[in-house]
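Quick illustration for those who missed Monday's session on complexes.
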Amino acid sequence: DIVYLNGQFLPLAEAKVSPLDRGFLFADGVYEVIPVYSRQTFRLDEHLRRLQASLDGIRLANPLSTAQWQARVREMIGHSPFDDAQIYLQVTRGADDKRDHAFPTGVAPTVFMFASPLVTPDENLRRLGVGAVTAVDNRWLRCDLKTLALLANVLLRQQAVDHGCAETILVRDGFVTEGSASNLFLVKNGVLVTPPKSHLMLPGVTYDVVLDLAVRHGVPTEVREILADELLDADELWMTSSTKEVLAITRLDGRLVGHGEGAGKPGPLGEQMWRWYQQFKNDVMRAGRD
Ligand code: PLP
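Prediction with pyridoxal-5'-phosphate bound:
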């Protein structure tokens, strides 16, 4: 298992980080998860742009240039045994010699990267869809930053697992924000609806791709706030993320999503979107554009 740490590729067992690292003490850092298909990254530049936005948001200088990130990610893929992988990378504010909330001076950031297998939802899971629960979004007000401070997300996701479900849909002040680790789309009367980007949700790379594909294929879209009450009235619900791609939510808080014949089953637009997503991915890969 080869990982990247502070400029070096080395075996995981030899990768050492100080217990005084601010990532460990304060969750003072940011991260990205980049999907790799057949040893090629998908949307790498978009992920690196969001990394920059997260770093700007926590006032931490980017330790690497875009070209350096690209080269290191490519090298990481070369060290990985997995054709389809997810590259996890994180940057923390580094290890000081004392514990003080205020930014340290003269401390180098810690840069860490590793690859693990990418397991996207298989056909069986896609045919059934997954269950979700709703919960109050009790995270902070900078959910647009992809920071290491994921304890709220962890606890919220566990609520889903405790109910035998896959995801928790978050509701703030009566409006849906996103999932604990995904963005949310709703279909009602043929219209695809998703919340607008704001400080209350992560600007998903997959969210952008899905909206773009919808527009390109002439699907009516509405980017607007979604009331929690609209969820159970929806014809389809999907979660999107780099690892889940487009996945139907077919049960919500113990009730079936959708109506009549389609209740509790993945809907036609979601299946179509999944195919468009696969096709787009394949086109991008074939063209070697990503
Ligand atoms: N929202 C949250 C809170 C996430 O953690 C993630 C990613 O895991 C997403 C949305 C989806 O983002 P992306 O499509 O860039 O993977």
